[in-house]
Amino acid sequence: MEEKIIRYDHPNGEITVLWRPKKCIHSAVCVNTLPQVYDPAGRPWIKPEFASTQELIDQIDRCPSGALQYELHQK
Ligand code: SF4
User: Global pTM?
Assistant: First the structure.
């Protein structure tokens, strides 16, 4: 089966956060760094609109498992 990748588009059109649930090791680095974006109890649990593109990039680069990645879009 193909690995599931869930996409969360930022309304600014600049960035999409990608999350691979199977890779996540639940280290909570994301939740501790940007709690306004990553809320495991929220639906959806990732709300990219609560951070800037640069804040998301800086945080996603620190995800230890590679479960979080991003795509940047030309505007
Ligand atoms: S930082 Fe990455 S590995 Fe850790 S909980 Fe968040 S998505 Fe999962």
Answer: 0.94
